Amino acid sequence: MPTLSRRFFITASNPELFLQWQPQREAQVLSPLSPTQIQKQRKVLESKLISALDCCTSVIQIKQVHAHLLLQGLDQCCLVLAKLIRTLTKVNAPVETYPRLIFEQVRYPNPFLWTAMIRGYILQGSVSESVNLYSCMRSVGTRPLSFTFSVFFKACGAAQDVSLGRQIHAQTILVGGFASDLYVGNTMIDMYVKCGYLNCGRKVFDEMPDRDVISWTELIVAYAKNGDMESAWDLFVELPVKDKVAWTAIVTGYAQNARPREALEVFERMQNEEVETDVVTLVGVISACAQLGVSKYANWVRDVAESSGFGPCDDVVVGSALVDMYSKCGSVDEAFKVFEGIKEKNVFSYSSMILGFAMHGRGHAAIQLFHDMLKSEMGPNHVTFIGVLTACSHVGLVEQGRQLFAAMGNHYGVAPSVEHYTCMVDLLGRAGHLEEALELIETMSVEPNACVWGALLGACRTHRNPDIAQLAADHLFELDPNNLGNYILLCNIYASAGMWDKVSRIRKLMRVKGLKKNAGYSWIEAKKGEIHEFFAGDMRHPMSTEIMQALEDLLNRLKANGYVPNLNSVAYDIHDDEKKHMLTNHSEKLALAYGLLSTDVDCPIKIMKNLRICEDCHEVMCGASKITGREIIIRDNMRFHHFHNGSCSCGNFW
DNA sequence: ATAGGGTTAG
């Protein structure tokens, strides 16, 4: 007869159990009990053992609990044994030895015990053995649980093993009663989606008799991750009861698909419907604001975060996202204030701030922060090194960059990736060490990609080296044949070397391939925070006439000061007059003219652009900052340019 | 037991 003994409590390895010891109850136990009381005591004992197992973190502790269990005559108690095996799996005890031994001593394993064993084998990578156990379980006539299937589906999803997934799917139908199980259905959708079979997941969803918000959200996320926001939105609209997770999925979906305005719109609706905002929602919205780069929205979302109790001081993830957001909104000083306010900074906070400094050309600040980070004994990761190498590059700290690059693998255990090599090629290339950069590419430990060769090609333009440029271009045209930018760069390099026959050959190649320039556009935040968007030659704006006039006036004043339009920036093989016209219409120039017309004189003019700023526009911005006395901040797809009194923070290299 | 999250180079 199982009884609770004093010994059990006192020798229990776990202090929590000891604290739970109640002498009154023990007195009861020692007196004779009725069968129902015995049953009740047994239940109490079982739950004590289970909670003891919850606290176990090593095999030795589990063995002690096991010893008590045997002492109490519970060697056939599947409930506790299943928990014991799950706990052993959690502490990574090899399932084949100790757990297997326990399992084989049980005469009538229940489905929970079978499932615990199956799960153990799956988690330890023995999928075939788990399938084997499942067959045994079926052959002795034991009915599986929903959980049994979900264990398999989870494993298939993680291993992207759709063929096993389909077999288990067939089993859920074969065994009967599981095809309509909500939990099984949901884990099955997830399995198909993770294996890349979104349509199969959809089919499961469509055939489910009962669906809950989880089923819907799984599919919404799957569509969003697939870049199909239209299907995601359609599902979202149909979803009868939307919870905060579903809302967040759609907001984040837009943010991750580079549609920040829609993300913000949906978030605003979410707030109007008074759905609770939590950290995960905020992170998605903050990322959308970072992409948009508009201060009004940035400040708004920060207020929302703070009033929801997740300000930068409260939550490190929100704080780090805000650092990134303010950097990308052009306010690197504000980013640093937020950074300083984060109570428990982590590697994300530091990396974001280092990248922020690097992006704004404040290389020394970035490197200083990197050293502060090391002092606080925080381990840098691969992104941290991208930030700090970029920073070195922008300040021309070649030797320091070399040392950091060498140290990353040797001292910090971060193996250099293609991205880090790209930074190094950029660093060496900018400083004019083209041969060394080429040598680095040729001896790379990983396969060079288009970015690496692109960095080299960019450096060849600055340092006018057509030979190495040709080599880089050969690789680029193979790796990334439809990227027009590479052809233009090569053209410029040949043109400045006077190699006109090569120029016309490349131009012909571009024509034959029918490569078209990406639609470049710029946007600017007006006084009240509204966004004005411009394409090249755009006349849609209600103030178009004034804008064109202001631009012409500005260019005339610049020309009087010696500005000559830089025709190299136009890739097309057209007449110079036409080129001049095209240059004049570049979207960032229109945005600048609008900014001059309609923003406060003491505020910087902030322009965002989806492509890299061209040389001519860069020159115009420099000149405009001098003539007008206005500070101009431009974010292109690479970095920030702060124009002040005739010069740019990028030092004319970008 | 099952659904949503932050930093990435030319």
UniProtKB/TrEMBL annotation:
Residues in DYW domain copies: 562-654
Record flagged with keyword Repeat: yes
Sequence ranges of the PPR repeats: 110-144, 181-215, 243-277, 315-345, 346-380
Any one biological process term the GO annotation gives: RNA modification
Domain of life: Eukaryota
GO molecular function: RNA binding; zinc ion binding
This protein's UniProt keywords: Repeat
Keyword Transmembrane helix: no
Family recorded in the similarity comment: Belongs to the PPR family. PCMP-H subfamily.
Protein name listed in UniProt: DYW domain containing protein
Organism of provenance: Parasponia andersonii
